[in-house]
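Researcher: Here's the sequence for the chain we discussed earlier.
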Amino acid sequence: MYLWIKAFHILAVISWMAMLLYLPRLMVYHCSAEAGGRQSETFKIMERRLLRGIGTPAMIVTWVLGLYLVADGGYLSDGTFWAHLKILLVIVMSALHMRFAWHVKRFAADENKHSERYFRFMNEAPAVVMVAIVVLVVVRPF
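Model: Thanks. This is the structure I predict for it:
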């Protein structure tokens, strides 16, 4: 059963990462759209559906299955540090998710105060955290 849960955990992570990498890119383009205009309204729908329909459910499944894998694998009590650091980075990823959700609400209310440059920077943050997590899981350097 462990391998099935691991497979579904990986699928959930892929879905979550797809949202975390695409949503801020939509926001980059949304910055250029006239508030209240047709293009802006389309971006609002896309952002909301991406966040609520894919991102948040994928994040929840990632956490639930990931915590099961950690508990079942005994990774927090085996004397290694990589699993602790990985969980910390997943918390950082979850904080990014919550920040993006906040931005979706700001855009929905036509109250965005950030520039395209800000969202271009935010678009890179999940990728950097993802690379660190993958290295920790595969290489287990600690």
